[in-house]
Design brief:
This protein is mainly β. The chain is built from 4 helices and 13 strands.
Length: about 180
């Protein structure tokens, strides 16, 4: 599944940014739809190493660990989110996909001043999401090298999925688009 072409739009009151909201460890994270190139279903979410899909190799990283947290041991609905930005590609295991949301640009907030360290490169800002917040991930940081400049070797533990998915190019995972201000 791809979310390409699903980014900024004009909705009644103003321009919006479409984002995929996921949980990873203890945090809600929002990834711009333009950076999401695919979502692997739960039966493939246990893949480690790398995944090759449509001739693109995605090194797989646990997103919670990338942020310095431990992932949830009993994730409810684990997925692998395939991301790309500026020619770089990476896959991330997440604990759960919460859904797509359209956030009015006026509701996107910059990080507060106490975010003074390297986390300013990790996140572009935040917005209210249900009863909490979602941190808006910077796609350039997301697919960039790990701290210390390390990149996983894309050929170690690679799982080729192109053949498995060849007949399912039109597959759609149903995700409800939510208004970020709506609460349950």
């Amino acid at each position: 599944m791809s979310l390409r072409g699903q980014t900024k739009s004009v909705a009644g009151a103003g321009a919006t940014e479409r984002m995929l909201v996921v949980t990873s460890g203890p945090i809600n994270l929002a990834i711009s739809a333009t950076a999401v190139e695919g979502i692997l279903p739960p039966e493939e979410a246990g893949v480690t190493g790398s995944v090759t899909l449509r001739e693109i190799t995605y090194p797989i990283t646990d997103l919670a660990r990338r942020l310095g947290h431990a992932s949830t041991a009993a994730a409810r609905d684990p997925r692998i989110i395939l991301c790309g930005s500026r020619g770089y590609h990476r896959g991330f295991s997440v604990d759960q996909v919460l859904g797509l949301t359209e956030v009015e640009l006026r509701h996107l907030r910059p990080l507060p001043p106490h975010f003074a360290g390297e986390e300013r490169t990790w996140f572009k800002g935040y917005f209210l999401y249900h009863e909490g917040v979602a941190l808006w991930v910077n796609p350039d940081w997301l697919v960039g090298p790990d701290p210390g400049g390390e990149q996983p070797d894309p050929h170690v533990g690679t799982t080729r999925l192109a053949e498995d998915h060849a007949g399912r190019s039109g597959e759609v995972i149903e995700l409800e688009v939510l208004d970020a201000e709506r609460t349950k």
